[in-house]
Amino acid sequence: MLNEDGSPRAAYAAYHKWFAEQDSTHLKQKARDAEEFFRRTGITFAVYGEDEAEERLIPFDIIPRIVTSREWTKLSRGIEQRVRAINAFLQDIYHRQEIVRAGRLPVELLEKNDAFVSQMIGFTPPGGVYTHIVGIDLVRTGPDDFVVLEDNARTPSGVSYMLENRETMMNMFPELFSNIRIRNVSDYPKNLRASLSRVAPPACKGDPVVAVLTPGIHNSAYFEHAFLADQMGAELVEGHDIRIVDGRVAMRTTRGYQPIDVLYRRLDDDYLDPLIFRSDSVLGIPGIFDLYRAGRITIANAPGTGIADDKAIYSYMPDIVEFYTGEKPILKNVDTWRCSEKDSLAYVLDHLPELVVKEVHGSGGYGMLVGPAASKRELADFRAKLIAKPANYIAQPTLALSTIPIFANSGLAPRHVDLRPFVLVSPDKIDITPGGLTRVALRKGSLVVNSSQGGGTKDSWVIDDD
Amino acid sequence: MLGKTASGIFWLFRYLERAENIARLIETGHRFTLTRNSGRQDEWRSILAALGMDAAYRATHQDYNAAQVVDYLLRDKRNAGNLRNLIDSARQNARTTRTAITRELWEAVNECWICVNDALKRQVREADLPATIDLIERQTAMVRGALENTMLRNDGYNFSRVGNFIERADSMARLLDVKYYVLLPSVSFVGSSLDNIQWETILRSTSAYSAYRWLYPGRASALGIAEFLILDRRFPRSLAFCYGKLTDNLRHLAMSYGAQSASLAEAERIYASFASLTAASILEDGLHEFLIEFLSQNRNLAQLVEQEYRFNS
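Predict the joint structure of the above. Result:
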């Protein structure tokens, strides 16, 4: 929020002025009100214990994260470039694999990768769009430097928190929104629907019917699935609501079976079609993949897009961007050592206490070592894992991540954050909602922002700075 | 609308109605305990019977001690149909039907769940019972208010009403059946005046006490009460009233779906049959037999709705 000399940074000037005039008891009350607002509106996720399910709130911090329009313009250009490259990459690897032929990507990374779906080879999804919805995780490392921590090209979640955080802030602090020009995010559901409608399959006649596929009420992101379906005016379906009728994927309505044109699935590839993927899946729809290939339904995101956000592929992203766009990447990657390479492994083993080591097929911060925070024992355990299966890991330096204040009991306190902007891709357009979801590591000194491990969220503002 | 969603809304309002009935019965039972010295245990027993829980209760309990029965009805884990579970199920259904209910309705259900759960975390002390029942009744009333004030009058609304009135008719008929000996030990009692406390109990547990007094000041007869609770179309818990609402809502559904409707035909048939009945004829032919027949028809109607609108398959 502040420059080194203690003056407010440009992005925070107006907010800082307002904040200085606030009474801290009043703000503490607002923080409690915000929590109450989340509880009342049911924005919770379920945690399953031994006995019964417990519902938790993702902690919300009332200090917004602010980015100026100028910063955002640069960021969004970088994001757009990266997302175009990801789609071109997916089109390529499921067709001619030019990038492999050109020697820019080792073929083993595709062939030996669980996220590579061979049934997608030779098939182009409607409109040529693979990743309809993408979330790019960014961290700030300097005044003008954002780097990409991770791409989310499968089923990125968190957009409902972006929207509800904003609703909450407008409710708590309407005066801020009257006085500061903050870019609107509330069009996301409308844009999502429009974007999905533009990739209707050839079999679609008339206005496309969109549905959201959820694994069910016990999924921790169920709130978001229901929220998005509701906001888009789409049905929220589960596998058992669906049947194949007359060569179409159809949902059981009170009027009989109705064909679905575009299915926004919030279910992993593995569970999507038991005839193709995991045969024990009861969550998916047997036979959907064949109909997909026959142009009778669109699946968003396309099966097999997970390869693009695999951590082993991540380190090649700068090459991927350059290869497909012919431009230098606008957004940088975090320096990454591929432990599959002998020299890199040696370096990583030598510098383990300084590095963050990540599992390549893991997700969400579980199979991960944060060197500076790890005990001797944890370091030794990870060293053994690395030596046993080096190709399963990549390593990155612990970044000098920027911090943003949170409203702690004792007043403002700096914490590490990341930013996940949400991107919608349709055949003719890439649409990025200004801002995104800011996740914050609430524990002092922590770098882990995941909600399952003590992370919270903030409202994220893009403000007009002219 | 998905069949599953229609079913979700239908059951959301059945659970809610059932929870309200339990709350009202507890209120009545408690009042009985406070005003009478004898017959208390019988009263709790008949309340359990009216809810179809007596056999299960007896399997785990020795006697009809008020505190035990109240806890059993409100929150005892051994009773799957306890009020807390009903509110929990109602809220679960609201979560799964978010695409078809308004934000206001969802928030009202959610808040009801939060408050009721809070209030029932521990066994409710007798000193807190009136306030707790009051809280439950107010919270469920807020849900109804949100439905009435914000829901589009579309199929979703109709399913909520159909669920509501099928449940209400069911519970009224069960209560009358459990209490019919009060109304009618034998036909010769028709027209004679009833034991004051017994008829008061029935009327109170159906929220009919003041309404009945307005209509029949100072006169409580088996005939009058049966007429009122079964056939009076002005009283919102009478069987005839429930079927008036059921036919209205099923007709709206049939019209908006533009199809022949077996459930509508059945509801209309039952509704029309009320027109040819009088309290005297019902009592003469046997109240118990009438109620048993009615309960079976009412269940059958629920099944027809379920099949016709593809709730499950």
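The CA atoms of residues 84 and 109 of chain B lie 13 Å apart.
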